[in-house]
């Protein structure tokens, strides 16, 4: 029986008609049953910009940006020789209508913001379906499928939570034809629909997550993530130009890498694939013949340090109070406050009367959070820090590893260390000014040049 393959193409793969045709060829060559696409390159940013303009500026300024969005999509449609523009113009009309409504009311609700953002993917999938028809040249039926029919979420607009069981049920009902290979569906990433029928989004970076959820719902064998780079590198090549592309990495390692700063994968992408045991392939739509990177449950090798990541814009919050000494429930009270504000903590260490934790710098804009924490303890804040993570295997049971790390760092001061919670990760804080130096030295020591 043929394998079921879900392919996802990012915005750079949807940049223009040429990129779309190239990506269509990749999808065909790799026998995709269903293709999930992002908005055309830059469109989501423009839709967000349009929402802000509509809220704060004149309609004339908004209309200029609307015209830019219209021309971009009409230009791609012309190059793809799309004869019937009715559906595309209907979507472009929605862009104008929603932004006009925001401008008149001077109000942009979370529901309206999700609705206008969703139009980027809805337009790009329509255009990509046409590109796939051209390249396929009638060999197989192609259909532009509205993902909202199957990707059921709650109504937490802006960062909707998927309803896993319902997605499985709806995929069985609506997408069974693509399993047999008789049709290829093109659908949208990033968006879903609440039980009440409202359009939702999964948050920025949610296109990969959408593809993984659909792959899980279909019971797919392979999820392909096609980007503008040929796989996952041992670190950011912009920091270390000699970083190496990895042929394979485990789910556990890749999850740590994504969570702690690697941009190529969204941190939530791997969860559905792991639940269903789906192999994930990351490759470049620009270099489809390059080897790419496979993410699997197990790999043939398990190096001590396989890769490293850098998470910028970190702040260190240290909460100190004698009340912590020999008491219980203190950490519960702290994390209850973070939970109420829906703020994620990246790493944490504790002592007898203090607890230190890292959050993204933007969190500190939430003055109410700091005020509430100050009712429990004295709060000290250090900003402009970066979290460096070494990703690998058996890290927490390898003697001498810490010594090697600190020797390699030389005179670079380490502000906080987090080790022991995961056998796959050793992470620590350094000043932003020395973060790149830290990654370069560690990469040279553990991975090579």
Helix-strand layout with pairing:
Elements: E1 5-9, H1 17-29, E2 34-37, H2 43-56, H3 59-79, H4 86-105, H5 110-136, E3 141-144, E4 152-153, H6 164-174, H7 176-179, E5 183-188, E6 191-194, E7 199-201, H8 206-218, E8 222-227, E9 248-250, H9 251-259, H10 270-276, E10 279-284, E11 293-296, E12 305-320, H11 330-340, E13 347-350, E14 354-360, H12 367-373, E15 378-392, H13 401-409, E16 414-418, E17 425-431, H14 435-446
Parallel strand pairs: 1-2, 1-8, 2-5, 3-5, 4-6, 8-10, 9-11
Antiparallel strand pairs: 6-7, 10-11, 12-14, 12-15, 13-14, 15-17, 16-17
Describe this structure in words.
Helix content is 40%, strand content 22%. A hairpin with a 4-residue loop joins strand 6 and strand 7. The mean pLDDT is 91. It has helices at 17-29, 43-56, 59-79, 86-105, 110-136, 164-174, 176-179, 206-218, 251-259, 270-276, 330-340, 367-373, 401-409, 435-446; strands at residues 5-9, 34-37, 141-144, 152-153, 183-188, 191-194, 199-201, 222-227, 248-250, 279-284, 293-296, 305-320, 347-350, 354-360, 378-392, 414-418, 425-431. The protein is an alpha/beta fold and 449 residues long. The chain contains 14 helices and 17 strands. The strands form three sheets. It has an eight-stranded mixed beta sheet with strand order 3-5-2-1-8-10-11-9, sandwiched between helices. Strands 13-14-12-15-17-16 form a six-stranded antiparallel beta sheet. Strands 4-6-7 form a three-stranded mixed beta sheet.
